[in-house]
Write a structure and sequence with these properties.
- Its EC number is 3.2.1.1.
- This is Alpha-amylase.
- This protein has 665 residues and is an alpha/beta fold.
- It has 13 helices and 33 strands.
- The strands form 9 sheets. An 8-stranded parallel beta barrel has the order 1-2-3-6-7-8-9-10, surrounded by 6 helices. It has a 6-stranded mixed β-sheet with strand order 24-23-28-21-32-33, with no helix packed on it.
- Strand 11 and strand 12 form a beta hairpin.
- Helix 2 runs parallel beside helix 3 and helix 9 packs parallel to helix 10.
- The radius of gyration is 31 Å and the shape is elongated.
- It starts with a helix and ends with a strand.
């Protein structure tokens, strides 16, 4: 009973998606107690533009009168009139949300009807098991579900009354026909899916009977609270749709609140959960955030940053179909209904304060949804790392990488990833500009070897994905491996640096680049492939350009430019244990065909910034020879006193020498 869109969202068909992925919705949100006008506005102003797949809305049918949230879960009739609004407003909401690519899932209460007697919000009367569509004959005999029944008495759980609510005889043909008629009416209005409330209190065969009469293939997920050891298990319901995995919520909460994040490396089926493709998961929901419905160590909006981090993990981790909770502040009153003011209040957004909480708009949560949407083509965890306690990081192959630090100190570690080199927008804290050239917030650099030099603050996180990479040339960059060797005999304590790029006057007069105003217009964007040399790696950290200006703003001040590494073609045995560039970052290097003292730069370089593939370099030996003298290189693309190297090639020069040897890899 799943649509193709929802199947893809679950990752079941993730391997069918092309790479790199086009962002596809993967996450839905429960706008708890929102009215239909607010939901429609939210679809247009936030949910659609930010890639949410669907909205779970509160029950839309007539219910008992009262301000408490749970009055919505006591049906009086199936007339579409409720605290959320009229049928006309409901239809308008569906149309406006669908136009934004956001589907509507209805919370369907089909196990029972309202208790007591009175008049519903649409004017229909009820009482003594008598309703406009049902009579006493349509209900099970009155009996009470006792607390102990959940552990040992299936019959009472599924045939007696949940908290005194008249229990429909869902095995009866008339009842099934009536329920299917209600669901079909909603699907005809454009509803795409249903949450079946209190599914544990109906047998699987009864639900199957109802669904056999429902037209089309709406997404169905069933509320089955099962923490283990119950007479009725969640696994029984997987044949009739998706199932809420409450163990996920409590175990995630327990781990984030009381345990170690390092435990989470196997989170999912190995923890006794349902298979991923059958599970709907959440950090919290409207019941357990109030201490009901299988609550335990559940994390909620009241936990602040802890809630952020738990949601980041849920949205980054490849398990289940995630639901984001969007709450209101109930100020300790677990019966309280929604705030008296609308969310979209005459141009004022009543979020984040003492009314609506709007967690789905929180930067870390909306950013987590963006991350999930863009990594769904790789449904695997790669490159797991942890510190044995509360710092973790993991990848989704080359599609994305995430790190979470729930320690009270900074996370400083070199993380291995499968991401391509470049600068990425941390989508938890910022957004990529429309042209992809900048990020509104924090950026994360992936080095040429795929590593990230992480400097993550306490109680913080980052997430980058394949479509959050910053493009410095409007998407036309051309990153290629580029190697430069410069021979200069040096002594211990001497280090070689180079500077380079494009001559300012040439660029200004011939390329239309204003390098006086923006120095980096004449620089060559780079990321280092070799960060294994413990001496030079700190000088390369936070360096993004081969330029004419020495150390960049966040680069080590010792750097006179871009650091190079000493290499040789052969490591003499008299020198002791062999050192290699591949392992140690210096020493023997297969690309060095010439001998000792060939200092090497190995980078990924954006060749789109070169002049027909050419750029300039000049070397400096610190604590030694200083700068090279003027160079006159034959075949140069324009007049200069520097070496000319070719981007994407192996370039060999001699210090103070005019010759050049350039070859392909």
């Amino acid at each position: 009973m799943k649509s193709l869109k929802s199947t893809l969202a679950l990752g079941v068909a993730a391997t069918l998606l092309s790479a790199p992925a086009v962002s596809a919705p993967t996450t839905f949100v429960h706008l708890f107690e929102w009215n239909w006008s607010d939901v429609a506005n939210e679809c247009e102003t936030f949910l659609g533009p930010n890639g949410y797949a669907a909205v779970q809305v509160s029950p839309p049918n007539e219910h008992i009168q009262g301000d408490q949230w749970w009055t919505r879960y006591q049906p009086v009739s199936y007339q579409i009139q409720s605290r959320g609004g009229s049928e006309a407003e409901f239809v308008d909401m569906i149309s406006r949300c669908n136009a934004q690519g956001v589907e509507i899932y209805v919370d369907a209460v089909i196990n029972h009807m309202a208790a007591g007697s009175g008049t519903g919000v649409a004017g229909n009367s009820y009482g003594n098991k008598q309703y406009s569509v049902y009579g006493p004959q349509d209900f099970h005999d009155t009996c009470t579900i006792n607390p102990e029944d959940y552990g040992n008495d299936r019959w009472r759980v599924q045939n007696c009354e949940l908290v005194g609510l008249p229990d429909l005889n869902t095995s009866a043909t008339y009842v099934q026909d009536t329920l299917a008629g209600y669901l079909n009416y909603l699907t005809n209005l454009g509803v795409a899916g249903f949450r079946f409330d209190a599914s544990k209190h109906m047998s699987v065969s009864d639900i199957q009977g109802v669904l056999s009469k429902v037209n089309g293939s709406p997404l169905v997920f069933q509320e089955v609270i099962d923490q283990g050891g119950e007479a009725v298990s969640a696994a029984e319901y997987t044949g009739t749709g998706l199932v809420t995995e409450f163990k996920y919520s409590t175990q995630l909460g327990n781990t984030f609140r009381n345990g170690q994040l390092s435990w989470l490396s196997s989170f999912g089926e190995a923890w006794g959960f349902l298979p991923s493709y059958q599970a709907v998961v959440f950090v919290d929901n409207h019941d357990n955030q109030r201490g009901h419905g299988g609550a335990g160590n559940v994390i909620t909006f009241e936990d602040g940053r802890l809630y952020d981090l738990a949601n980041v993990f849920m949205l980054a981790w490849p398990y289940g179909y995630p639901k984001v909770m969007s709450s209101y502040d109930f100020h300790g009153d677990t019966d309280a209904g929604g705030p008296s003011v609308p969310v979209h209040n005459n141009g004022t957004l009543e979020c984040y304060g003492s009314n609506w909480k709007c967690e789905h708009r929180w930067s870390y949560i909306a950013g987590g949804v963006d991350f999930r949407n863009n990594v769904n083509d790789n449904w695997n965890v790669t490159d797991w790392w942890d510190n044995g306690n509360n710092q973790i990081a993991f990848g989704r192959g080359s599609a994305g990488h995430v790190a979470i630090n729930k320690e009270d100190y900074t996370m400083n570690v070199a993380l291995g990833t499968q991401m391509t080199a470049g600068v990425y927008c941390n989508v938890l804290k910022g957004e990529l500009s429309q042209d992809g050239s900048s990020c509104s917030g924090e950026t994360i650099t992936v080095n040429g070897d795929g590593s990230i030099n992480t400097n993550l603050a306490a109680w913080d996180a980052f997430a980058i994905h394949q479509n959050s990479k910053i493009t410095t040339t409007g998407g036309n960059e051309d990153w290629q491996r580029t190697v430069i060797f410069i021979q200069a005999e040096t002594a211990s304590g001497q280090d070689m640096f180079i500077r380079g790029g494009i001559d300012h006057d040439y660029a200004n007069n011939n390329l239309g680049r204003n390098c006086q105003t923006t120095n980096f217009e004449c620089a060559m964007p780079i990321t280092h492939n070799n960060l294994r040399n413990v001496t030079t790696a700190p000088w390369k950290s936070n360096e993004f350009y081969l330029d004419w200006y020495g150390a960049e703003s966040a680069q080590d001040s010792y750097a006179e430019g871009t650091a190079m590494d000493w290499t040789t073609d052969v490591w003499p045995s008299s020198w002791g244990a062999v050192k290699t560039v591949a392992v140690d970052g210096y020493g023997e290097e297969p690309l060095n065909l010439w001998g000792q003292h060939y200092w090497m730069l190995d980078v990924q370089m954006d060749c789109s910034k070169a002049v027909n593939g050419w750029f300039e370099v000049k070397a400096f030996v610190k604590n030694g020879q200083g700068w090279e003298s003027d160079i006159t290189q034959s075949g140069a693309p324009y007049s200069s006193n520097n070496h000319f190297a070719q981007c994407g090639k192996i370039n060999k020069f001699d210090f103070n020498g005019n010759s050049a040897e350039i070859s392909d890899f």
